[in-house]
UniProtKB/TrEMBL annotation:
UniProt-recorded name of the protein: WLM domain-containing protein
TM annotation in the entry: none
Keyword Coiled coil applies: yes
Stretches assigned to coiled coil: 131-158
Pfam family, one: WLM
Highest rank taxon of the organism: Eukaryota
UniProt KW keywords: Coiled coil
Organism for this UniProt entry: Serendipita vermifera MAFF 305830
Recorded GO MF terms: proteasome binding
Domain WLM intervals: 1-149
InterPro entries to which the protein is assigned, alphabetical: WLM_dom
Length: 170
């Protein structure tokens, strides 16, 4: 926040019954930021990574109102900076057992997503053993980009900051 000179007057929870169509809301370029922390049924909390992405999205509204290319560039930069910071923290942590942080391999998950077959889908499953390493990497990259684009679209669709600004400035 210091690096980007962001200022937030109030950071608070957006309860599931308040604007159920929204994941986050930035009022008046940082006067208040509201984030949905709880699940829709109040039976738990949303994943930290999801809340963090929405926070970066709403902080971007401190600078840019619309979801244009300027907005997307800054939002991507903020998410990258936060991920780098968190990676730095993980790399410098130690466990009592001396094993350190052991993340689940993302490559396996991404490969499964890239080669998955959906029941009832029209496509046929791909036998990944017939793919070259370059083709596997390309499929993993494509699947990852589709997933990230879908997540970003969901955040944009459930963002009240730009629609609120448009409602006040026809």
């Amino acid at each position: 926040m210091e690096q980007h000179k962001f200022s937030v007057g109030l950071l608070t929870e957006l309860a599931p019954h308040e604007h159920p169509e929204l994941l986050g809301l930035n009022k008046n370029a940082g006067e208040a930021i509201l984030l949905r922390l709880r699940t829709d049924r109040y039976d738990g909390f949303r994943l930290y990574a999801e809340v963090r992405r929405v926070l970066c999205h709403e902080l971007t509204h401190n600078v840019w109102g619309d979801h244009d290319d300027n907005f997307k560039t800054l939002n991507s930069r903020l998410n990258r900076e936060v991920a780098e910071y968190e990676r730095h923290l993980k790399d410098n942590t130690h466990s009592l057992m001396g094993m350190g942080y052991q993340p689940i391999s993302a490559g396996t998950e991404m490969m499964a997503e890239a080669t998955a077959h959906v029941l009832g889908g029209s496509g046929t499953p791909v036998d990944s053993s017939n793919l070259s390493p370059a083709e596997r990497r390309a499929r993993v990259l494509e699947a990852t980009l589709r997933r990230l684009q879908a997540e970003e679209k969901e955040i944009e669709d459930m963002c009240g900051s730009s629609s609120q600004a448009q409602a006040h400035n026809p």
